[in-house]
Specification:
This protein has helices at 3-12, 25-33, 52-65, 94-112, 117-121, 130-144, 181-184, 188-196, 210-214, 234-247, 292-309, 316-324, 349-362, 380-387, 407-413, 427-437, 450-465, and strands at 42-47, 70-73, 85-87, 90-91, 149-153, 170-173, 226-229, 250-253, 259-264, 270-276, 279-285, 331-335, 340-344, 368-372, 393-396, 421-423, 443-447. With 466 residues, the protein is an alpha/beta fold. The protein has two domains: 3-324, Mur-like, catalytic domain (UDP-N-acetylmuramoyl-L-alanine:D-glutamate ligase, 3-Layer(aba) Sandwich), CATH 3.40.1190.10; 331-465, Protein-Tyrosine Phosphatase, Chain A (Alpha-Beta Complex).
């Protein structure tokens, strides 16, 4: 199996959201058959509606700067599937990805063979989904690479997500808001319960440092799972607290015991000064713009404090260097071209509000030209009503994904914005229209879906290379 065959095979399993079948039975059976690769490395598991990818990227970069061999598993990808799986900050090679895909595919074939003896020991009740297959590839690769620690971003929800088979050192929940209601429930309480499902008893003990034993939010029993929670409302907080009590986990809230100052430059890049157990007087330049990244960085630092208490050698300079060098494309990513281009995958109302706040604080609204595209299962009306007033012109387009909404469908949902809307047949055409409308001093905001961001970045790269 070559790389193209591997990618085509995985895509043939269907869209990772539309064909999602949540549950841990199949991924557990598949990993058992493969020798339980997920049990051969330590991990951090990060759930949440928004911000979990940024927190994962911050944590991985600091651990790598501290000298650890890291694995990073995130989703979705922007341009190529290998982006999801990195070791030491480097994407998995295409030929290795193809080899592992074939190995996992062969394992599934053996397990699906009802006449084979292996099927009796490791039963599958269906073919693994796209996300389950890629998760198995990632875990097998991390085990082969003998990583020190993996930073894992939950795909969807938490309780029944394929990543939740690991037994993490630290469990992180960034926040809880509305998204993927079809799978997670229609209320904040239901969604919070799904996120809280990543909290579970830990099966091993960790030696704690003096700091952990002195910390008033800690306890002396080292086999309890630390849970880092950021920015939750009271309803969510009570649900997370209850889950921690049920499982014997220890809840650590990010903003408790944190003393910090944050100051932004003219483009919304913040400089963070704080005192924490990693050493006092830490000063960090955040490489990702937007005030919400301050909370994401604080969440990562709180997580790293816990790892340090377990004996990980993480110093102040590692934190400053690692966070400053963090790269996380497509999340308020600023391209300093003419016109300036900003990419953001805001695909739920809470994320759209953060983009709105950032743009309103740091840019002139009469200088924004927007390209918007969305998946049809998203809260398009609510998202658009946060974003569209930012722009003098809005170009609707359709990413090349089966879940994508048609521009006419979006326009019909938002009749009040018809005077500023233009329609395009492709992302390439949308970019051409935007460049005709925008002057050199304007800002082109490409927003609404990470799939749109990926398609737009691919078009721009192809134009530069042409």
């Amino acid at each position: 199996m070559n790389y193209s065959e591997a990618v085509n095979y995985l895509y043939s399993l269907g869209n990772e959201v539309l064909t999602a079948k949540l549950g841990l039975r199949n991924i557990t059976a598949l990993l058992n058959f493969l020798g339980d690769p997920h049990k051969k490395f330590k991990s951090i598991l990060i759930a949440g509606t928004n911000g979990k990818g940024s927190v994962a990227a911050f944590c991985e970069s600091v651990l790598r700067a501290s000298g650890y061999r890291t694995g990073l598993y995130t989703s979705p990808h922007l341009i190529q599937i290998e982006e999801r799986i990195c070791v030491g900050g480097v994407m998995i090679a295409a030929d290795v990805f193809a080899r592992l895909t074939e190995e996992i595919k062969d394992a599934v074939s053996a397990l699906m063979n009802e006449n084979g003896s292996t099927a009796k020991n490791f039963p599958l009740d269906r073919h693994p989904t796209y996300f389950e297959m890629v998760t198995a590839i990632a875990f097998k690769y991390f085990a082969e690479q003998q990583i020190d620690i993996a930073v894992l971003e939950v795909g969807l929800g938490g309780r029944l997500d394929a990543t939740n088979v690991v037994d993490p050192l630290v469990d992180v929940i960034t926040n809880v808001d509305y998204d993927h209601q079809k799978y997670l429930g229609n209320s904040i309480e239901e969604i919070a319960a799904e996120k809280a499902g990543t909290i579970k008893p830990r099966s091993y003990e960790m030696a704690s440092s003096d700091w952990a034993l002195r910390n008033p939010n800690w306890v002396r029993v080292e086999n309890l799972l630390p849970v880092v929670l950021c920015n939750a409302n009271e309803t969510v907080l009570q649900i997370i607290k209850k889950r921690c009590q049920e499982t014997g986990a220890v809840l650590l809230r990010v903003l408790e015991d944190s003393e910090y100052e944050a100051e932004a430059d003219s483009l919304g890049y913040f400089r963070l000064r704080l005192s924490c157990s990693l050493e006092s007087g830490v000063e960090i330049a955040l490489p990702l713009p937007g005030e919400h990244q301050v909370l994401n960085a604080l969440t990562a630092i709180r997580t790293l404090e816990i790892l340090k208490s377990f004996g990980y050698q993480i110093k102040r300079q590692n934190v400053a260097e690692g966070i400053a060098k963090t790269c996380w494309p497509g999340r308020l990513e600023v391209l300093n071209s003419q016109p300036r281009i900003i990419f953001d995958g805001a695909h739920n109302p809470a994320a759209a509000q953060k983009v709105r706040d950032y743009i309103k604080q740091f840019f002139e609204l009469n200088q924004i030209v927007m390209i918007y595209g969305s998946m049809r299962d998203k809260a398009i009306r609510e998202i658009a009503r946060e974003l569209f007033p930012l722009a003098r012109q809005v170009i609707l387009t359709q990413p090349e994904w089966e879940r994508a909404a048609n521009p006419i469908e979006i326009q019909n949902l938002l009749p009040e914005f018809r005077p500023v809307i233009r329609l395009s047949r492709s992302v390439r055409e949308a970019l051409d229209i935007a460049h005709q409308l925008a002057s050199e001093n304007d800002t082109l905001l490409i927003v609404g879906s990470l799939f749109l961001v990926g398609d737009a970045k691919k078009c721009i790269q192809n134009t530069v290379l042409a």
